[in-house]
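Quality-control log, excerpt.
Job 1 of 2 completed; input and output follow.
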Amino acid sequence: MKNRLFLVFLLFFSFSIFGDEKPKKIIAYYFHTTHRCATCLKIENSSKAAIEKYFKKEMEEGKISFVSINIEEENNRHYIQDYKLYTKSLILSIVQGEKEVKWKNLDKVWLKIRNEEEFNNYIKEEVESFLNEIK
């Protein structure tokens, strides 16, 4: 009898821990300042366009989103420390519920922006890598 109760408790506990796990999602953040140069705008627009092109289905399903944030606004300044930002940046973040579990600064966007195919492939490969982690 004690063994049965223990098994029932164990099964209930296992389902309560593993059954309520929230799905993971990816947020692509583009961080910018108020004053923006042509290259900064191009990185933002090209990043968003590449993600929408290659991951339209995942965006529609809510697995991926793109968010542009001005780090000069008072309530956004914490991102500078959070992500160790030193310039306009594209950050990929895996979020589960309200908790960030991984992030990466795609710092090669500045090197690849002058070549559309290289830029798009870089974005696609990095996002695919993150998608593989949330499946």
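Job 2 of 2 completed; input and output follow.
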Amino acid sequence: MGELSEHAPTKPVVLIVEDDFAVRNSLKFSLEIEGFSVRAYESGLALLKDIPFAGADCLIVDYRLPDLNGLELLAELRRRRIALPAILVTTNPGASVRTRAAAAGVAVIEKPLLSEALLQEIRSTLAR
């Protein structure tokens, strides 16, 4: 008793890239409560420096970051042949952001993240 089984189900791994400390930690906490394993980064460059994210299942990325914007970060990941399913979060996304996100195959969830929309999108993304 008390030993972990070799066949214990693993938690889905979600990566968060969000420059706002409070939002980043709140998201991390909320998703861990929902049963996800979460790694959080304060910038796109911080994520790119930590490349060993093999096994990650989903990326949540803020559009407005201090270095690369969220879509630029996704383009860089794809340039490096890392095709991680992603969700873009932002406040008041304009038509241009929505169009570019759609072209990249990325869902857009608007901040503030008050409803279950992000959690539902994560689950939908993981089910694909």
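Post-run check on job 2. Confidence is low (pLDDT under 50) at residues 1-5.
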